[in-house]
Description:
binds NADP nicotinamide-adenine-dinucleotide phosphate; about 350 residues; UDP-galactose 4-epimerase, domain 1
Amino acid sequence: MRLLILGGSAFLGRAVAAGALAAGHEVTVFNRGRTAPDVPGVRAVRGDRESQEDLARLAGHGPWDAIVDTSGYVPRVVGDAVRALADSAATYVFMSTINVFPDWPAQPVTDDSPLHDCFPDAGPDDGDYGTLKAGCERVVARDFPGRALSLRLGLLLGPHEDIGRLPALLLRMADAGTTRTLRTLAPGDPSSPVNPIDVRDIADFVLTAVDQGLTGGYMVAGTPANASTYGELLEACIEATGSAAELDWVASDFLQTQDVEVWSELTIWIPPGEVPWETDTSRAEAAGLRCRPLRETVRDTWAWLAADDGAVRRSYQPRRPHGLTAEKERALLAAWDARA
Length: 340
Ligand SMILES: NC(=O)c1ccc[n+]([C@@H]2O[C@H](COP(=O)([O-])OP(=O)(O)OC[C@H]3O[C@@H](n4cnc5c(N)ncnc54)[C@H](OP(=O)(O)O)[C@@H]3O)[C@@H](O)[C@H]2O)c1
């Protein structure tokens, strides 16, 4: 199979490139060469997806069996790529998000739930992330008719994560007893659910989906059979890093009275009663989606971060700050100790 990845050097796109190469496919990546080095073995075409000339030049490198668009966020920009490449590939796989559903996270959603209302030529200021992704889905379906596939992804983790979530938890555990205290704030209850998906499982599903000629919309997130808990996630981080961290579970009600951000500072944690982990992946599972255990994702992410004698870890630059600073963690634990 011949694949073109729009992006392909960072987190998810990188996993798709590596997975496709490992499965024996031919991979072209299209990016500006700024964010990260390409996976060895791909054919790289340099260019900017916001340039019509670069897209026209890219089309000359085809044809492909499928285009995998991991880097599309704005309908107008995605539309330009779709039209420039319409005669160059059989299928267009758009990496979307569960945020396309306005009902989520307040209510459980299915693949057939309504999407945000966004016109297919919207610009960057015409909506928030989920709304614009819904517009992107529409322009792909309109201009690649009958050959478009949208994968609505849940939380992604895995090696090469550039967002900073799982790395923040791993680095916290690794630093326990050296630059951080052994006593480690753990939010809420160890039995709180978590159900992320490993980018490598998405990569496998992309290949399966293209092979089967799937079209339409599929939710691709952690499957119910793979559901885990926040306690297991932290224990897996402790095990992977060989840490002696001592978890101190701090009640959710207390944390919600404090000046601390859930999800980012309290990484990957949300207060109980919200439903973001309950995702209906039945359609994708029927088509072949399989998820590896969270412990494996955590172990391999640490193996990547700790590689080269810690060189990767030392140069790690997350896209956004995640995790508690040592000072804030100390202050929260002191307030927790001092509670009435
Ligand atoms: N993280 C999550 O939990 C989550 C959840 C749901 C859905 N998603 C979706 O998953 C996808 C993540 O994709 P990703 O990890 O591969 O990262 P990404 O940030 O979407 O893509 C980065 C790649 O695109 C290239 N790129 C960026 N701007 C470009 C431009 N103007 N022209 C050409 N290439 C460009 C970058 O290389 P250069 O900078 O070198 O050009 C890099 O290779 C996104 O679509 C996101 O919406 C993520």
